[in-house]
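Margin note from the TA: students keep mixing up input and output lines. Inputs are the sequences; the output is the structure of the whole complex. Example:
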Amino acid sequence: MDELLEQFLIEGRDLVAEANVALGVLADDPANARAIDSAFRATHTLKGSVGLFDMAPAERILHAAEDLLARARKAGTGLEIGDVPRLVATIDQVDRWIDALERSGALGADAAEVAERLLGNAPEQDAQPAAEAVPEDTASPWLLELQARHPDVLADSAAPLTAFRYAPDGDAFFRGEDPLALVATVPGLEALDLLPAGGAWPSPDDFEPFQCVMLIEGLSTAPAEALALAFRMVPGQVTLLPVEIDLPTTDAEESEGAFTAAATTVLRVEAHRVDRLADTVGELVVATNALALLAERADAVDTPLALGIRAAQADLERAVDAAARAVSAVRLVSLAPALRRLPRLVREIAASLGKQIAFTVTGAQSEVDKQIADGLFEPLLHLIRNAIDHGIEDAAARAAAGKPEAGSLTLAIAREAGDILVSLSDDGGGIDRARIRATAIARGLVSPEAADALSDAGILALIFAPGFSTAAAVTGVSGRGVGMDAVQAAIDRLRGRIEIDSLVGRGTRFTLRLPANAITTRLLVIEVAHDFYAVPFDQIAETVRVSGERLVPLGTGTACVLRERTVPVLSLAELLGSADSGTLPAKLLVTRAGGEPVALRVDGFHERMDAMVRPPSGLLAGMPLVGGTTVMGDGSVMLVLDMAELVA
Amino acid sequence: MSVRVEGRTIRVEGNGPVEDAEPILAALQEDPHRTVDLSQALRLHTASVQVLLALRPAIVGAPSDSFQARHFKLIWLNEER
C-alpha cells in the first residue's frame, strides 16, 4: 500500500477517535468550550488530511462541520440542539469512507450524493449503514465481465475474493517493468486474464513490440491490502475491488472482519517476525529448563559441578526471562485501534434496531498481546450486537420500567495481575433464567434433571451452548446463523473465560477474562497412573490433600466437602482410561474450568514450570482432553490437559 | 541469443528478456505459420507474451516458470485454440 495512504489510515482514524471523544462530551454539555476546541482541531486536521486523497466529498462535509464549530467557538455560546448529531453523522461518514478507501481505494460511487444529503441535513441522512458494505463499484462493467469469465473460481471459493485490474502504462517496458513478473508476486492468484488494452490486439503488421498494450485482470483469494502491497510499485495503474461471494446481501460482519487484522497490525515491524522471535524465546525457556535437570543428575556424581551448573542456569534463566519480557512487551499493543470503530458500529446497530444507546468505553488504552487484540474484536462485536438486540429493551418497555429512554452500554477494560478483564455491561432487562432453562431443555441441550442440578452461573452459561438462541424472532442484527457459541469458541481460542452476571430488570454484565501475555504458560506437572501430564495454572483453583474419610459416596460417584461446599470428585486416571491407584491421602486438583468446581484425583503434584504450549497437531488434535503439548527440558513431549474438556 | 529461428520453428530459450519480443515478432511477421517452441524457455517477458497473444501462432511446450506454466496454459485454453 502507498505509504502516504497507510499513514493516513492510521492518523485519520486517530482524528476520528479524537473528534468522537469531544463529541461525546458535547452530547452532554453542548457548551463545553474545551470539547468544542478539541472537535474543531480534529475536524480541521482531518479536513487537511483528506485533501491529499481523492476524497472531495469528505472534504466538503468536514468543511461544513469545521465552519459550524468555528462559529460556535467564536460566539462562545456553545452548540445548538441538533448540531451534535449532525457532527456525529459527519464524523461517522468520514470514518466509513476511510474504511472504504482502505478496502477498495475509493469512496464509492454514491459518495457525492451522501455528502449532499449530509449537508442538506435530510432526515434520512444516517439510515443506511449496510449500504457501505456493498461498494457501488461492484457494478463496474469490467468486474462483472471478469466474474462472468470465471464462474468456476467464484463457485469454488469459500473466501471472499479480490479482483484487480492492472493497466500498465504504454511505456512500461521502457522503464524496465515486466508487468507479468509483478503479477506473479500476487498472492492467492486464482484467475488471470491477459486482455488487449484497446479492446483488440493491434494487427500483426502494426504491432509495436516495445509498447505495452496489455491489460491484466485477475481474481485473488488474498485481501485487498495484500494485493495493494504486491502492486505498490505501480500506483495508479491498478484498481482493486472486493468480490462478494454471497451475492444476496453483504454481511456487514464479514466485511468488518476482513480488515480487522489490518487495522490492529500497527506494529511497524512485520508481525510474523515478532512471532518468530517469540517462538524462539519460548524455546529458549525450554532449553534453560534442561539445565535444571542436568544439575540434578550431576548432583549425584559431582556436587561442585552441580553447583556450577545451577549458578549458570540461574544466570541464563534471568537473561532469558528478561528476553521473554522484552518480546512480550514488543507484542503488546494498545486495544484502542481495535476498539475505535466500535462507537460508530454501536450507533449503526442501534439505528437499525430503532433503539437509542449511550455507549461508553473506558480503559481502551490497556495494552495486551497482539494476538488478543486481534482476536477480541469479533467476539466483542458479537456480544455488543447481542446486548443491543436482546439486552436493551425497546423504548416502551424502558419507559414502563422507569428507565431513561437511551439504553446504557459500557465497555470497561482493566488489567488484573496477568489478566485483562473486558466487561460489557448493559442496563437492559437482564437474563430470564426460567426462559433460558426452558429453551435449553426444549432444544435438547440439557435434560430437565441436569438443568435442575445447574447453579445460577451454570444456567446463564447455557446461552453459550451451540444451538442456543433466545430471540423469538431472529433479527437481522443478531440472527446471522451464528449463536453466542461463536463468542465462546473465540474466547476459548484466546485461552480466556467468560463470566456472566445478570439481574432481571437491571441489566447484564459479560466479563471476558483473558491472558494479557500469551507467550509462555504457567504449568503444573501432575502424575497420574505413572504418567506425567501438565495442567495450565489458570485452570487450577486449588490443590488439596484430603484423608480417606473425607471422601464420601455421592450417588454413583464420590464427593468431598471443600470450603463448606460439596464438590464432586472424579478420578483423573479413570478419565484418561487407566485404573485409579486409590492412594491415600487423596491428592485433589480442583478446577472451575467448566464453570462449577470439580475435584480431580491425581497421584502426585510435581514441579511448576513456564513453557510454551503448542496447539495439538496430528493425531493429538483428535483427542478431546488434550489442550496442547509442551516440550520438556529433556526434549520429551508432555501432554497439556484441558480441564474444561475433562470435566465437561 | 535466446530466440532461434529454425525453419518453421521459433525456439525461445532461457530467461526471457524484453528484447526477445522483437525477433519473435519479426519471425512471425515473416511467416505467420511458424510454430513457437517454448519448451526450453524459463519464462517470457510481458512484451513477448503480448506478441504471442496478438499474432496467435501455434505453440509447443510451456515455460518452466510455475506461475507462467499454470496461468499461461489457462490463457491459451481460454483462447480455444
